[in-house]
Amino acid sequence: MPTPRTTPAGRVDAIVIGASAGGVDALTHLLPALPTNFRPAILVVLNLPRSLPSLLPEVFSARCTLPVHEAGDEQPIQPGTISFAPPNYHLLVDRDAKGPLLALSTDAPVHFSRPAIDVLFESAAAIYGARLGGVILSGANADGALGLQAVKRRGGVTLVQATETARSPAMPEAALAAGPVDFVLPLEQMPAVFRAWGDGGAI
């Protein structure tokens, strides 16, 4: 694993997370472990069937101390809030005069997925730069691999779930094959990294 680090800017303002198969279980270990004073915004894309409603906000609201909701178009990004991409919409990060916004798009699927992880990561990297954390969890395709490298190119910090701990290792494997990352960790070690990103401390 590369030498652990925070971002060059220290604290991160937002964390983007991508997952598919096995991702709900991974998030169940990760998101409820975050404290009420956790400040970065968390934006999540899970590759789910486009034709079905998402129950993720309800499921995680009952388990997390942080507020959880489904992302809405042109919604200001709030610190310390978990936002899930809705089914059949790409989730992006945009900006207006007041600051970063959530945006939804019905552009063509990417990696056969809408929402797609790459779309979120690339747009968030363009807005947040070095104040972004990017995370790839369990999944069964290559979505997110290029997006994670976009986060790294912009100076952000990157984290991939250790493949031997992922129910579906294809997504972490693709992310690692695409280029260097900063952390490769099992789920139980990830909350400590998140907390360090939130306060700018060293790991």
Automatic annotation (TrEMBL):
One of its GO terms (cellular component) is cytoplasm. Keywords: Hydrolase. Pfam families: CheB_methylest (PF01339). The keyword Plastid does not apply. It comes from the Bacteria. It is an enzyme of class 3 (hydrolase). Residues 8-201 form the CheB-type methylesterase domain. It catalyses: [protein]-L-glutamate 5-O-methyl ester + H2O = L-glutamyl-[protein] + methanol + H(+). GO terms for molecular function: phosphorelay response regulator activity; protein-glutamate methylesterase activity. One of its GO terms (biological process) is chemotaxis. The keyword Hydrolase applies. PROSITE patterns: CHEB. Its EC number is 3.1.1.61. This is protein-glutamate methylesterase. The gene is cheB6.
